[in-house]
Design the sequence.
């Protein structure tokens, strides 16, 4: 297997250095033009690809341009408008509820605190972190999506399993200045090279320090299971 550095801090620093060089333009891949569109897009992206979300929101954001539009929407019509999104019926309910809450409690604006954001339907800490970072320039934590969870475990940076505990573990380890970009770098690498089922370890810039490398390791530390 690859040989990780002597400490998690050193391992993390080396991972960041190499990924910054490999993906200098890494950033959010959802399309949006304001905070409301960002919030809606991130809610829709749960368990759905950003590519599909961008396809759906290109028309959605022309039809619904304010929180009031979502609040006043017919839920079944809204579900049809986001058809193709995973769990579109449930998410239509989230979007309508979000619109109602924004109108009733926030003058139609997207709030800028973790507590107020996570009080919205369908918004957990991961979604709130994205909205804070890219909508309000507030970096309060680290977004732990499926790529961040997989790669941080696979690379031996953390042994935690739940997104909430992974986030706390990474926040104590990663310099605060890198919190936002860490997510984008790991997502970029996860999509390009280190996917869930068949990572291209031989093409990976981290292979020599990765304890899960398929080149000479039998176990994927992301899942704790043997490579298939």
Sequence:
């Amino acid at each position: 297997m690859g040989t990780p550095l002597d400490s998690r801090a050193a391992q993390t620093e080396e991972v960041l250095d190499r990924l910054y060089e490999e993906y200098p333009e890494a950033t959010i891949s959802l399309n949006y033009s304001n905070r409301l569109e960002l919030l809606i897009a991130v809610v829709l992206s749960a368990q759905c690809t950003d590519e599909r979300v961008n396809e759906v929101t290109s028309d959605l954001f022309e039809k619904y341009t304010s929180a009031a539009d979502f609040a006043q929407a017919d839920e079944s019509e809204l579900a049809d408008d986001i058809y193709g999104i995973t769990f579109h019926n449930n998410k239509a309910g989230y979007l309508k509820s979000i619109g109602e809450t924004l109108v009733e409690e926030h003058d139609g604006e997207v709030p800028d605190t973790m507590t107020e954001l996570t009080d919205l339907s369908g918004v957990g800490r991961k979604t709130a972190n994205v909205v804070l970072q890219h909508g309000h320039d507030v970096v309060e934590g680290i977004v732990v999506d499926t790529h961040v969870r997989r790669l941080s475990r696979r690379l031996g940076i953390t042994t935690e399993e739940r997104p909430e505990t992974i986030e706390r573990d990474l926040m104590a380890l990663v310099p605060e200045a890198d919190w936002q970009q860490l997510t984008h770098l790991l997502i970029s690498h996860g999509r390009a090279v280190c996917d869930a089922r068949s990572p291209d370890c031989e093409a990976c810039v981290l292979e020599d320090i990765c304890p899960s490398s398929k080149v000479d390791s039998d176990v994927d530390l992301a899942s704790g299971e043997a490579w298939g």
